[in-house]
């Protein structure tokens, strides 16, 4: 069956069951050792004598992958050798974190990483400090920031996304050696160490993803005309967990007065509305209207469901129902383009991407991609359509792909996590008509659940018949 012929129905749908008593799952010593081995083996493959891994509060994913922490309000660098020897270069207020690092590491104090006007006490420049950390003249050094540059330039290995004073310090310390960009060791969608997870990591990240989805669902279910954005956002309680994106709770026009956070702005019937929360492991997002039905919509958007929301949901259901191990990112990209044409719905970003500690790590889903989906990949369904005059339509959530061996390991070691995966799969298939492949495990309690009219809490979209006929 042509996916475009799949019938999206708006009608009575039982609400999803949210998780109760979520408990964080810590990463084990075996997982930390596995992570270190994965990076060291990739260093050997690329002939790197040393790897410098940068981190700061906003860009700490690769650094924390090995250390277990981000450097909060300072910068930091982890210098790693092929044999696993490590040195943490930390500022004034992060020095104590060396004792809590997930991998054993020596310490080099770098006052330059400290906050403005704190005591510096510098007796060495950055080159000298990198020499203390083990960078020697003649070494082949990789520098990992947080992104890869995938432009068509002939040599992207010399594009660095870290502060210049760090790059210059390493170059001077390495002397006649070489320095090249190395974030791909961590996040390249085809071979990066971080792009697949084991059972322990899947359970660890499922906690954050489930909590984020339940926060969004609670806010969506409690919003009402007359409430303010801040009042609704108050239901998005993250239990102190660090957010991976700016929390969105916005009614009507967003970004007025350059404000991006929830405001004391009252919600009105007929407003377009956006809700987003991202925690480590996953993001949930919804875009719809504050309405009970078409009668609450302004004249110019009364056809919103047929023109925007249903086509979007068809594409989302197609994404969930077709993703499988061995499929290429290019195949997924073309499938979504055929169901929800870019030229008509104005989406431009990748229709899905990898996620982890950060909301967007990298993506195997782009035009022409030959990168295959693999067991252990955590992927977010992320399609952003647009039509002039209409509010957005969105229902973003994530899954983890798991082959039979990984599924058995999760079930054996983390039975409560496994029960939630099974519950979500049953809900999507039986209530929403979206049949998942056996390897697709929903990380969110509200995956596939979309209400175009937020005030009608008993109705949502579903697929008529069995959606697996799309595969």
Description:
With 471 residues, this protein is an alpha+beta fold. The chain has two domains: 3-25 and 196-470, Creatinase/methionine aminopeptidase superfamily (Creatine Amidinohydrolase); 47-181, Creatine Amidinohydrolase, Chain A, domain 1 (3-Layer(aba) Sandwich). The protein contains twelve helices and 15 strands. The strands form three sheets. Strands 8, 9, 10, 11, 12, 13 and 14 form a seven-stranded antiparallel β-sheet that branches. Strands 5-4-3-2-6-7 form a six-stranded mixed β-sheet, with helices on both faces. α4 (164-174) links the parallel β6 (140-144) and β7. The radius of gyration is 23 Å and the shape is globular. Mean pLDDT is 94; it is low at 467-471.
* Overall domain count: 2
Query: How large a portion of the residues is in β-strands, by DSSP E?
Result: 15-25%
Within the CATH hierarchy, at the fold level, what is the topology of the largest domain? Creatine Amidinohydrolase
- Overall CATH class of the largest domain: Alpha Beta
Order of SSEs: EHEHEEEHEHEHHHEEEHHHEEEHHEE
- The CATH homologous superfamily of the largest domain corresponds to Creatinase/methionine aminopeptidase superfamily
What integer is the average pLDDT?
94
Major sheet:
7 strands, antiparallel
Name the poorly predicted regions: 467-471
What is the architecture of the largest domain at the second tier of CATH? Alpha-Beta Complex
Overall outline: globular
Number of helices: 12
Rg estimate, integer Å: 23 Å
Distance between the termini: 8 Å
Given the helix and strand composition, which structural class is it?
Answer: alpha+beta
């Amino acid at each position: 069956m042509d996916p475009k012929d799949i019938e999206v129905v708006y009608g009575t749908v039982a609400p999803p069951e949210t998780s109760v008593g979520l408990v964080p799952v810590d990463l084990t010593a075996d997982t930390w050792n596995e992570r270190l081995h994965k990076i060291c083996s990739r260093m050997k493959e690329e002939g790197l004598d040393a790897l410098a891994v940068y981190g700061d509060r906003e860009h700490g994913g690769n650094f924390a992958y090995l250390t277990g922490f981000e450097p909060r309000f300072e910068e930091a660098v982890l210098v790693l050798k092929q044999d696993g020897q490590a040195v943490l270069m930390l500022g004034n207020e992060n020095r104590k974190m060396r004792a809590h690092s997930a991998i054993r590491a020596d310490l080099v104090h770098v006052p330059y990483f400290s906050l403005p006007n704190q005591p510096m006490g510098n007796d060495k420049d950055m080159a000298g400090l990198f020499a203390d950390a083990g960078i020697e003249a003649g070494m082949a050094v990789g520098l990992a920031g947080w992104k890869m540059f995938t432009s068509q330039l002939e040599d992207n290995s010399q594009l660095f996304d870290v502060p210049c004073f760090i790059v210059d310090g390493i170059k001077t310390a390495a002397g006649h050696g070489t320095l090249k960009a190395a974030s791909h060791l961590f996040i390249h969608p085809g071979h990066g160490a971080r792009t697949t997870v084991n059972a322990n990591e899947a359970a660890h990240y499922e906690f954050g993803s489930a909590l984020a989805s339940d926060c969004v669902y609670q806010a969506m279910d409690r919003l009402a005309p007359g409430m303010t954005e801040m009042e609704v956002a108050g239901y998005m309680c993250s239990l102190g967990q660090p957010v991976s994106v700016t929390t969105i709770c916005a009614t009507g026009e967003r970004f007025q007065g350059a404000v991006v956070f929830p405001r004391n702005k009252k919600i009105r019937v007929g407003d377009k509305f956006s809700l987003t929360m991202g925690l480590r492991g996953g993001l949930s997002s919804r875009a719809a209207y504050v309405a009970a039905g078409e009668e609450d919509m302004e004249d110019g958007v009364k056809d919103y469901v047929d023109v925007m929301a249903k086509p979007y949901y068809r594409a989302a259901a197609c994404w969930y129902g077709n993703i499988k191990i061995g499929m290429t990112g290019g195949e997924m990209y073309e499938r979504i383009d055929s169901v929800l044409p870019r030229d008509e719905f104005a989406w431009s970003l990748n229709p899905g991407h990898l996620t982890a500690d950060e909301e967007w790590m990298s993506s195997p889903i782009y035009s022409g991609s030959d990168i295959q989906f693999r067991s252990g990949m955590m992927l977010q369904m992320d399609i952003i359509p647009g039509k002039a005059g209409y509010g957005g339509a969105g229902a973003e959530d994530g899954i983890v792909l798991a082959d039979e061996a990984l599924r058995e390991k999760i079930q054996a070691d983390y039975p409560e996590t496994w029960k939630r995966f099974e519950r979500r799969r049953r809900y999507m298939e039986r209530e929403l008509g979206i049949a998942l492949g056996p390897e697709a495990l929903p990380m969110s309690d509200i995956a596939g659940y979309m209400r175009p009219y937020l005030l009608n809490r008993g109705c949502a979209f579903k697929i008529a018949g069995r959606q697996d006929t799309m595969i």
